[in-house]
Automatic annotation (TrEMBL), chain A:
Chief subcellular location: cytoplasm
Source organism superkingdom: Eukaryota
Entry protein name: 18S rRNA (guanine-N(7))-methyltransferase
SUPFAM superfamilies, A to Z: S-adenosyl-L-methionine-dependent methyltransferases (SSF53335)
Any single GO CC term annotated in Swiss-Prot or TrEMBL for this entry: cytoplasm
Methyltransferase type domain boundaries: 55-154
Pfam families linked: Methyltransf_11 (PF08241), WBS_methylT (PF12589)
Annotated 18S rRNA (guanine(1575)-N(7))-methyltransferase Bud23 C-terminal domain residues: 201-287
From TrEMBL, chain B:
Single GO molecular function: protein heterodimerization activity
Family (UniProt): Belongs to the TRM112 family.
Pfam families linked: Trm112p
Name the record gives this protein: Multifunctional methyltransferase subunit TRM112-like protein
InterPro entries hit by this protein: Trm112, Trm112-like
Gene3D superfamilies assigned: 2.20.25.10
Organism: Anisodus acutangulus
A single GO BP: rRNA (guanine-N7)-methylation
Source organism superkingdom: Eukaryota
Complex and partners: Interacts with TRM9.
Length: 290, 159
């Protein structure tokens, strides 16, 4: 189930069984918690202890909402799957739940929210599940209504799994057209598993405090967007290179050496793995008695 | 869930996958309080989203069942919310829900009064609509509220 979007519409895919499975898998809970923590970090709410009113778009069974409660915020959850909301009721989440479709626009009064988060939900909008669905219209309705209901200077952090480059451009394009400023933050762009994308949007024109924060685990110089397009290029090169005979690895008597170890460690670090720091002991030659 | 798990272990029926499924689907024990809630805070934020409706706020409330639940009092949140809440709609809604204590008009100076804050807190966070409906003020379309969840899904022709 790597891409539930391709299986069925959300209100049908997340039926009773799937909702229960989703919420009892410790792996999913773990990932959702991490994503929510990171989204809250990117939301940069002022740290004054005042509970804020947040919207959780695609709240599902309230896994993300629980994190918001733990941070002391009040929240409203919107989801299209009744089964997921039922599980949320069973789990006794603190926020209020609304059964609704984000593609029909959020029916919320203007300017009232202090922020919005969404974990792995917005890419569903790119699918046309019914004959009356037109992804562009739905995206437009969603982003323009989100822009309306957020207060001035409030942020929205939407974690997304776009299927390809075109989908990401589409989502970002409609966000910009609705009047948001901001961009995409990519965490761990070099890792296929830990790579996560966050759409960080701010209401109002670009200014100093609307600059997009840097993603985790990427090189300081390269911008996240360019980075991703480079990735795509690299991939195509890799494919055309495939038929070439592989170079034989050089293994001389001395072994691969310190440079090689340092290079490998750097590669793993970029993927986001936990790698011990380099020291004078790294790749040191062993004594002769070994 | 922990309750169910221990139950499974004790009876020693932790073998088949199917059995597990049926066991997990057992209703929760009775003493768990129900968490069905829709606060007036939520009501104060929702507006009707039907195409062509110019002013979908405030939604009228049709009450079938109201529950009251104690919630922690947080003065900072109330002060933050006071400027965002549509007071008239809140006062009207709380009267419909059977709590006519709120004054008709309110301004920021009243936030110093403890009595007022407690009333505000009670109306905003402690009154819950469990069953009923929200009615669009312009078209009269009903959005049913079941188990405290308002169903704001629109039909195809309303988008």
């Amino acid at each position: 189930m790597s891409r539930p979007e391709l299986v069925a519409p959300p209100e049908i895919f997340y039926n009773d069984d799937e909702a229960r499975k989703y919420t009892s898998s410790s792996r999913i809970i773990d990932i959702q918690t991490q994503l929510t923590e990171r989204a809250l970090e990117l939301l940069v709410l002022p740290d004054d202890g005042v509970p804020r009113l947040l919207l959780d778009i695609g709240c599902g069974s309230g896994l993300s909402g629980e994190r918001l409660t733990e941070h002391g915020h009040q929240w409203l959850g919107l989801d299209i799957s009744e089964s997921m909301l039922d599980v949320a009721l069973e789990r006794e989440v603190e926020g209020d739940l609304i059964l609704g479709d984000m593609g029909q626009g959020l029916g919320i009064r203007p300017g009232i929210l202090d922020g919005a988060i969404s974990i792995s939900a917005v890419q569903w909008l790119c699918n046309a599940d019914k004959s009356c669905h037109e992804p562009r219209i739905r995206l437009k309705a969603f982003f323009s209504s989100l822009y309306r209901c957020l207060g001035r200077g409030a942020r929205a952090v939407l974690q997304i799994y776009p299927e390809n480059l075109a989908q990401r451009e589409l989502i970002l394009g409609f966000a910009m057209r609705a009047g948001f400023s901001g961009g995409i933050v990519v965490d761990y762009p070099h890792s296929s598993k830990r790579r996560k994308e966050y759409l960080v949007l701010t209401c109002g024109p670009p200014s100093l405090n609307t600059t997009t924060p840097e993603g985790k685990g990427e090189d300081g110089e390269s911008c996240s967007d360019e980075d991703s397009s480079e990735d795509e290029e690299n991939q195509t090169v890799c494919i055309s290179d495939r038929r070439r005979p592989r170079k034989k690895q050089k293994v001389n008597k001395k072994g691969k050496g310190r440079d090689w170890v340092l290079k490998k460690k750097e590669q793993l670090r970029r993927k986001g793995n936990v790698v011990p720091p380099d020291s004078k002991y790294t790749a040191r030659k062993r004594k002769d008695r070994f | 869930m922990t309750y169910l798990r221990t139950h499974i272990h004790r009876s020693g029926r932790f073998s088949g996958n199917e059995e597990l499924k049926t066991l997990v689907k057992l209703p929760l024990p009775r003493d768990v309080p129900s968490n069905f809630q829709m606060r007036l805070l939520t009501h104060n934020m929702l507006s009707s989203n039907i195409k062509g409706v110019a002013n979908g706020f405030p939604l009228k409330i049709e009450v079938v069942k109201v529950v009251e639940k104690e919630v922690d009092f947080n003065i900072d949140f109330l002060k933050n919310m006071f400027h965002k809440v549509e007071w008239k709609a809140l006062a009207e809604a709380s009267t419909t829900m059977g709590y006519p204590e709120l004054p008709e008009n309110a301004d920021a100076s009243m936030l110093d009064s403890d009595d007022f804050l407690h009333k505000f807190h009670h109306a905003l966070l402690e009154l819950h609509l469990e069953e009923g409906a929200l009615v669009c003020p312009e078209t009269g379309r009903k959005f049913p509220v079941q188990k405290g969840i308002p169903n704001m899904l629109l039909h195809e022709d309303e988008v």
